[in-house]
Amino acid sequence: MSLDALRGFDMFWILGGEGLFAALLMLTGWSGWQWFDGQMHHSQWHGFTFYDVIFPLFIFLSGVALGLSPKRLDKLPLSQRTPIYRHAFKRLGLLILLGVLYNHGWGTGAPVDPEQVRYASVLARIGFAWFIGAMLVWHTSLRTQIISAFAILIGYGLLQLFMPFPNGQAGQFTQTGSINAYIDTLFLPGISYQNRALDPEGILSTLPAVVNGLIGVFVGQYLVKQQQALNKLSGEWVKVITLLLVGALLIGLGWLVDMIIPVNKDLWTSSFVLVTSGWSMVFLAIFYGIVDVLKWQKWSLVFVVIGTNAIIIYLASSLMNWQYFAQSLFGGVVNVAPASWQQLLSVMSLLAVQWLALLWLYQRKIFIRI
Prior knowledge:
- It comes from Shewanella electrodiphila.
- The chain crosses the membrane at residues 12-36, 48-68, 88-107, 119-139, 146-163, 203-224, 236-256, 268-289, 301-324, 344-362.
- This is DUF5009 domain-containing protein.
- The protein contains 15 helices and no strands.
- Helix 2 (20-28) runs antiparallel to helix 15 and helix 4 (54-68) crosses helix 11 (270-293).
- It has one domain.
- It is an all-alpha fold.
- Helices cover 66% and strands 0% of the residues.
């Protein structure tokens, strides 16, 4: 249950929760809310905020789900493997397609000209990270998966630091001078985000995102592993403490690497993978301890309702005008409220209409999976 709750917590901020702190600042005037509001925006370039962890956390959680029920397919007859492979390719293709729809949402629609379509997307990156991770889990040993994660992380860092490329210089971590921008300009079809040289979901930076998913796989396998402890409860707390400690270690290691390879979301640097994976483990440890070990679960329903249909509500946030629905249902209440309250009530009404739609699906056990 903690997995769905944390996934819902992750999505909560994307659906409108990021506006709460600016609204609270307007309501209370307390300057401390400015710091929280600053955490609700992506870093301008190098650096790290809470909002930067939302995307990699989702990839991490997809890996955890994969690791909770790992299965080897390579020794099964081809006839038994084929349906699973077909589903994997179908899921990848569908996420790429839905990513295109999301990119061109907000009432515009995807262009007819294929050269004007943005193919790189958040959903496509989730799809590729899951697909590559699944292929490794289904066909290799845990040892090979760990070696693969290290190889990708180290290889990607070395590539950014030392690989020469035409009209550029190795070791550049700039928006136009990095090897990522060169690869995107050369090979990425269609257009890039805001027509930049570098797409934040571009080709090269998708590779290290696989490691976020693989670390999730390792955590998932660890969580289902039976601990040799005095009793089951103490064994579960060992898992919580271990996740917290390893998460803190990864965060510290990431910031050490930052001295050589800066923490950067758009480049998805190796240091960024370490920092975000560390924070993902810390968040999972907290939710796992509270929801699944202590069994304090009633409060988590708020997030579970979101987490069980996370991808579909993410897609709907681009294809549907939720603000219109919120204004239609709660606009009268918002407009008569004192001016200092109106922004907070607007944010809450936006969250409410989306949550109520998800609650309707949840109560009818309609879970749209991809």
